[in-house]
Write a structure and sequence with these properties.
The structure holds 2 protein chains of 2 kinds. By secondary structure, chain A is an all-beta fold. Chain A contains no helices and 9 strands. Chain A has a 5-stranded mixed beta sheet with strand order 1-9-8-3-4, with no helix packed on it. In chain A, strands 2-7-6-5 form a 4-stranded antiparallel beta sheet, with no helix packed on it. In chain A, a hairpin with a 5-residue loop joins strand 6 and strand 7 (about 70-75). The radius of gyration of chain B is 13 Å and the shape is globular. Chain B contains no helices and 11 strands. In chain B, strand 4 and strand 5 form a beta hairpin. Classes of the chains: A mainly beta, B mainly beta. At the A-B interface, strand 4 of A face strand 4, strand 5 and strand 10 of B.
Chain lengths: ~110, ~110
């Protein structure tokens, strides 16, 4: 019973911005949007999260639509090391780890 | 700071055996959560420990258990292993906020 949908795979040229979309049309008012990524043979890595305002940190930017039904993770200058599976999830607050359900995610391949 | 460490990284067991996995959280983190990740089911939450007490539990059978020690290190145990228990078992520590920091995982293969 997935709360988010993401494209299965995407390619991006090295040095260009990678824009990864996520649909979460049934998101409720107390749910945040979280992004994680998992590089092959490693544990998931937290990237960013937000409620309704756009967020930016040293890794990425998160753009959330005004109706909160979708969001886009932006990696401004993708490198080969950004090749990974990216997961978008929604989590309520106070947080419940049962919400940490990763689906198939988007497999991003950064090409030279 | 050192990251979350998990031991062993790889493990092969046979059906019916039991296994214990270990996790050392980031220094200062008191919350440790365990997850199972499989290609078919994705990531699923097992349980969370905070200050040696189980604070939250996922929907797994009683064969899966865990504990946390006073130094925040945690172990999880799976008894009577089944083929379907083959998975990547991930541990994540948290300072008490919503951010979770994952370890590299233990890949368990049950034959």
């Amino acid at each position: 019973d997935a709360k988010t949908t993401q494209p299965t795979s995407m390619d991006c040229a090295e040095g260009r911005a990678a824009n990864l979309p996520c649909n979460h049309s049934t998101i409720s008012g107390n749910e945040y949007v979280y992004w994680y990524r998992q590089i092959h043979s490693q544990g998931p890595q937290y990237i960013i999260h937000g409620l309704k305002n756009n967020e930016t940190n040293e890794m990425a930017s998160l753009i959330i639509t005004e109706d909160r039904k979708s969001s886009t993770l932006i990696l401004p200058h993708a490198t080969l090391r950004d090749t990974a599976v990216y997961y978008c999830i929604v989590r309520a607050t106070p947080y419940n780890n049962n919400d940490m359900r990763f689906g198939a995610g988007t497999r991003l391949t950064v090409k030279p | 700071k050192a990251g979350v460490t998990q031991t062993p990284r790889y493990l092969i067991k046979t059906r019916g055996q039991q296994v214990t996995l270990s996790c050392s959280p980031i220094s200062g983190h008191r919350s440790v959560s365990w997850y199972q990740q499989t290609p078919g089911q994705g990531l699923q939450f097992l349980f969370e420990y905070f200050s040696e007490t189980q604070r939250n539990k996922g929907n797994f059978p009683g064969r899966f258990s865990g504990r946390q020690f006073s130094n925040s290190r945690s172990e999880m145990n799976v008894s009577t292993l089944e083929l379907g228990d083959s998975a990547l078992y991930l541990c994540a520590s948290s300072p008490g906020t919503d951010e979770q920091y994952f370890g590299p995982g233990t890949r368990l293969t049950v034959t």
